[in-house]
Amino acid sequence: MTGADFVLDGLPALSRSTVDRADALRDNAERLAKGWEEARLVVIDERGRARLAGDVLHLGWSGELGDAPVDGAVFLGEENEVAYWAVRGPGADDWQDLRMCGALLNDTDAGLMTAAVGLLAWHDLSNFCARCGAPTEAVRAGWARECTGCGREEYPRTDPAVICLVHDGDSHVLLARQPIWPAERYSVLAGFVEVGESLEACVVREVGEEVGVAVRDVRYLGSQPWPFPRSLMVGFAALADRDAPLAPAEGEIEHAKWVHRDEVRAAFEAGGAVPGLGLPGASSIAHRMLGAWANVRS
């Protein structure tokens, strides 16, 4: 394998999941009520954080809340005949969000927490109908909302964004940093897909807008949910000429630079940072993309 055709060496941290979402049960009130009797609860606070016991997601019991699903609870699915639900609850200083703990969790916990954070955040922002403005109420065990005025159904929204590792086909990758990031933190380029735009076209546009570079040979790598509050990061790789001038977008990109593979490897080996280069966190797809590219032996 060469640097031009590298692939992800595993699923991104927040793409992992084992629980069956069990769509067919969402309208089965009797079956949901029966499953609630011994259900496990993912408790998420208003900041999107959960309680961990070491690197394991702490799960509550449904019986602590009553004999039937409570208002605001959302059904996450079933595994081994155990039902999982998510609810809002008060947090504490030692609770963690997905940016902090996503890569530490096992496959089951990562999938549960990612779905819980995204679904509950959608409910928080969807209390009124987009058509007539009347209040909405949760239906289908939390997987839809129905307008009390016009009857319109609304479903959880996902905003697609592209994230692209731009490289020269040899030994350098193009990295950039936003002004609000910690000092010396760099990552690959990303941006939201616009209406009427394909994912590939978005890659070309966003890279051009952010650093002024034309890319080619755009190809898909993988994807990851990013519920902050409702994004789906769609990962790509693309080629660009390293001698093309860089023009960082004012106010959006503080600095951009080409980085040699050896420096990226050194940052990974040092735990995520070396002087002048800090890598994105392990819960992000950017981390997985850079690791896959850096580990190619040319």
Automatic annotation (TrEMBL):
<comment type="similarity">
    <text>Belongs to the Nudix hydrolase family. NudC subfamily.</text>
</comment>
<dbReference type="Pfam" id="PF00293">
    <property type="entry name" value="NUDIX"/>
</dbReference>
<dbReference type="InterPro" id="IPR015376">
    <property type="entry name" value="Znr_NADH_PPase"/>
</dbReference>
<dbReference type="InterPro" id="IPR015797">
    <property type="entry name" value="NUDIX_hydrolase-like_dom_sf"/>
</dbReference>
<dbReference type="GO" id="GO:0016787">
    <property type="term" value="F:hydrolase activity"/>
</dbReference>
<keyword id="KW-0460">Magnesium</keyword>
<dbReference type="InterPro" id="IPR049734">
    <property type="entry name" value="NudC-like_C"/>
</dbReference>
<dbReference type="InterPro" id="IPR000086">
    <property type="entry name" value="NUDIX_hydrolase_dom"/>
</dbReference>
<dbReference type="InterPro" id="IPR050241">
    <property type="entry name" value="NAD-cap_RNA_hydrolase_NudC"/>
</dbReference>
<feature type="domain" description="Nudix hydrolase">
    <location>
        <begin position="156"/>
        <end position="281"/>
    </location>
</feature>
<keyword id="KW-0479">Metal-binding</keyword>
<dbReference type="Pfam" id="PF09297">
    <property type="entry name" value="Zn_ribbon_NUD"/>
</dbReference>
<dbReference type="InterPro" id="IPR020084">
    <property type="entry name" value="NUDIX_hydrolase_CS"/>
</dbReference>
<protein>
    <recommendedName>
        <fullName>NAD(+) diphosphatase</fullName>
        <ecNumber>3.6.1.22</ecNumber>
    </recommendedName>
</protein>
<keyword id="KW-0378">Hydrolase</keyword>
<keyword id="KW-0520">NAD</keyword>
